[in-house]
Design goal:
mainly alpha, 10 helices, single chain
């Protein structure tokens, strides 16, 4: 049965392709939020409740595509990094006996050169993993408790005022004057308090909820775009590093 399966080396091109595609797709989608999604939403943001609905639905699409891309990038680039470092170590061991000063054979330099290419590839793939994985703590630990949570709190205040307890006088006034529709309609937009970060639960710190009650949904969405933009260059860095690692592996194999 094992003879019917392709050798693991045949999976390397697939890993390389997925390793650079995943961060590229992530960076493209994240960038599109700022240049394709938010501008038309903000251009017609006269109705705060409509803007809250549109932003919330767009934001909640994130968990659909981010985890698979993150897992793909981490697994493929991680495996490629381990493989490259193993080749570097093996190459150094093979060339150590002949790479000393005054070695008469040229084999040592060839082995040393190939080993350095492998080292470069390993570092590049490791950078790709670290850069892309860094997006997770920034999103879950930083954005969720701040700007993401503030936007969700404001959205619920506008869309489900009967089920929301404002923290400020301005928030209470907005809840009284906000037309959230019938109770059944409002229930659709209620998000329970969550201990762990989630796009479908309330997660903001108290100070950010207070801030959200004092500004408009338009201001919150605009600021969310600024925070979201930080993730774009990180995704691009991961893509560039993975591409560099692949190129170094190919060039090293050709030496």
């Amino acid at each position: 049965m094992s003879s019917l399966l392709p050798p693991l080396t045949h999976l390397i091109p697939l890993a390389q392709a997925l390793g650079l595609t995943a961060p590229a797709v992530y960076a493209a989608i994240t960038y599109s939020y700022n240049v394709l999604v938010l501008p038309p939403l903000l251009a017609h943001a006269d109705d705060e409740r409509r803007l809250a609905k549109q932003w919330l639905r767009a934001y909640q699409y994130g968990p659909v595509f981010v985890p698979p891309l993150l897992l793909t990038c981490a697994v493929t680039n991680g495996a490629l990094a381990v493989r490259a470092f193993a080749r570097w170590i093996a190459g150094g061991a093979d060339g150590s006996a002949v790479s000393g000063i005054g070695a008469g054979s040229g084999g040592g330099s060839g082995s040393s050169s190939s080993s350095l290419w492998a080292l470069g590839a390993g570092i590049a793939h490791a950078v790709a993993v670290l850069a892309f994985v860094a997006i997770a703590p920034y999103t879950l630990a930083v954005m969720e408790k701040r700007i993401n949570g503030a936007a969700k709190w404001k959205a619920q205040l506008l869309l489900a005022p009967a089920f929301t307890t404002p923290l400020t006088e301005k928030g209470r006034l907005e809840a009284k004057t906000s037309d959230g529709g019938g109770l059944e309609e409002q229930k659709k937009w209620v998000m329970e308090e969550g201990k762990s970060p989630s796009a479908f639960k309330q997660s903001a710190r108290r100070d950010w909820r207070v801030w959200a009650e004092g500004v408009s949904m338009r201001e919150i969405v605009t600021k969310w775009g600024e925070w979201n933009a930080v993730r774009v260059p990180v995704g691009i860095l991961s893509f560039v590093a993975s591409t560099l690692g692949t190129c170094l592996s190919v060039w090293g194999a050709a030496k």
